[in-house]
Amino acid sequence: MAATDADIVPGDLFVGVDVGTGSVRAALVDASGTILKTCQHGIKIFEPQPGYYEQSSDNIWEACRTAVKGAVGDINPEKVKGVGFDATCSLVVLDDKFQSITVSPIGCPTRNIIMWMDHRAEAQANSINATKHEVLKFVGGQMSLEMEPPKLLWLKQNMPNTWSTAGHFFDLADFMTWKATGATSRSLNTLVCKWAYQANSEGARHWDDSFWQQIGLGDLIENNYARVGSEVLEPGKPVGNGLTAEAAKELGLCEGTAVGTGIIELVLLMHMLEV
Description:
Number of strands: 14
Radius of gyration: 19 Å
Largest sheet: 6 strands, mixed
């Protein structure tokens, strides 16, 4: 079950991780919301040609490990009751064994992220918008080339080997929770904002098969959308069984520490500006 205010007691600590464009920032926060300590570590950006921006999920996780350990310091890790992630809306690609697979025209296997600001998928975004499909009205009437469906279509059309061997496509925030817990659930926030997932105030939540079929990505429907997300959780809901033993060791925390479903970095910023 998700923690409530009543579950939080004085002395409890929490770790928030923000994966930005150029760095990973971690903050140690107490039960009142006061930031006690922060740590930041840079991440690499690759530009193989104009308009193409790529990153490595291995590099990002390494930066996360460094930042979290720096923020937690020498405190007793048992005091940390939860970890949360937000991240840019970049596309992470892994094979069916959860190994990195290239998205780069130069073929580097560790460059497995198409960044949010990458503009290689302009033609694909235009073709998707030309369908005038009903789901587009939920993303402002047209789909930005910075959203994930155009990038997925670009991969299918331009890198068939990557497409045929890809087993998992994650928004970066969802990759982070998978890496921490081993659970492949996705955030309702990431999917609605960037993947054309459908949700309404009445509680209906679903992928629209006709959209994916019409834009040429009908193969993603297979196995109940397993490659892009068949389990969808609201932001903050607990993911899996918390930190795995491996992730806990890497982050300097305790196995089983709760991990909340993540959100897109920009959404977090918008909420902060409203406070």
